[in-house]
Amino acid sequence: MSDIQFWTLVFIFLSFAVYIGIAWRSRVKETAGFYVAGQGIPTVANGAAVAADWMSAASFISMAGLIAFLGYDGAIYLMGWTGGYVLLALLLAPYLRKWGKFTVPEFVGDRYSELVRTIAAGAAILISFTYVVGQMRGGGIVFSRFLNLPVAGGVGVAGAIIFTYAVLGGMKGITWTQVAQYTVLITAYLIPAAAISQTFTDFPIPQITFGQVLGELNALSVEFGLNSYTQPFTERPQLDIFLVTMALMIGTAGLPHVIIRFYTTKSVRGARYSAFWALLFIALLYTTAPAVGAFAKFNILEGLGGTPVDELPEWVGNWEATGLVIVNPDADTIESISNNPAEGADITVDNDILVLANPEIAGLPAPVVGLVAAGGMAAAMSTAAGLLLVISSSASHDFYFRRIKRGHATEREKLLVGRLAMAGAVVIAVIGGINPPAFVAQVVAFAFGLAASSFFPIIVLGIFWKRCNAKGAAAGMISGLVFTATYMIWSLYVSPGSTVLGISPEGIGTVGALVNFVVTILVSRATPAPPAQLMEFIEEMRYPATSRRQTKG
Prior knowledge:
Helix content is 73%, strand content 1%. The protein is mostly helical. The chain has a domain at 3-296 and 364-442: Sodium/glucose cotransporter, CATH 1.20.1730.10. The longest helix has 51 residues, at 151-201.
């Protein structure tokens, strides 16, 4: 066993013991605890849990890698996800918290109709499955490299552990576990970034110092026949940059596993302050990611360029064993580097390994490498647990309890169905994680596009337009979701790589959201308005702290 494997096992064992211990102490026997943690989570803790739920394997493992290879254009992930969280916190969360239901489909059902609830529950399950595939893949990569497991075996182990603590504690256990996971993941992200920054610039604050290497990085990139690192619109058309950023933003505001977090606070005021704390916690990682991407790209280009294949550094062989680094057998020296195997470069480096491999590439001590592995697992597991809970709640609460049992199921029945649904979701997610359609961050971006095209328009219109009705919402959701999913399937599988007007599968969700908005508004205008009592209630809901009548008085 190498030093890296030893320290990886130490950190993963200790962190997993903490997670499972918290889940055991937080186990619940009632649906309020299982779905919304009894609405008793303190503000700061909920902010940390939101941040951990938010910063998935895509943020921890994959985002810096995409920035490293996309350069300037990789900023779409930073702008889209950060801006989207602000949009969610200010525009939707307080109003949904005042409505006070367990799930997003439940809000949709109460606001519109049982038919729309069923459509929303199906959409929530589809989005969550797409999202959780990326998390399982991220967990599999960690186990594959550091525990000498095949990626498929690593995905299976990750799924089993996530299922264990998610089933035990439900939302209550997941929330307190995510507080611990945030602590682990942010520590694991910041320590190597600060160490590498100190090595490069003699100052350990990467958010400030990484700009000093960009000039040299631009020169190295051009030397390797790549685009200048800081030159915009070299990897994607400008239109697609805009559409992807917008899809990530409005998709964020429609993600059911993030929205449900604001149901767990003690009050509407708590939901607002949770949003503030979460944004602060998220910013610690998101402001560091560009530095990590730049440092990793610089180290790879400088360390591998012109190196004979038989003299490549040890980290290349370590990751080559996982299949995530490919050395061209016909190459004598490394003259070209890519992240796409189809390009046939001398060496191909998967986007998803850069953060995990960065400490090895930079020559940091084995304990730091092990800590980063534990952080990657914390990021993947925290988000996966939240997604599995959305799948579970949609299946048990919105389908079984509301549609099949018509509101007459016992607490024990609902919990059993929820846990069985979670088990089935884990199995499907493991299968998807073994054979994902793209890089981790790209798979997650697909989920954001689906959320943008389905939930965001009907939630916004449901809160801010009283005239929006059930027929309009049902037609809009189906139109937006079907349009977006069809384009993604066509571009990914039917005609791989094909686009219309250069719009990528990650950006099509913006167009799908526009389709949803237009169809919802037109159908609502052409059909009868909602009942007057419901329209009055919606008017009052716009004042999260109090009622409209009290405000006027």
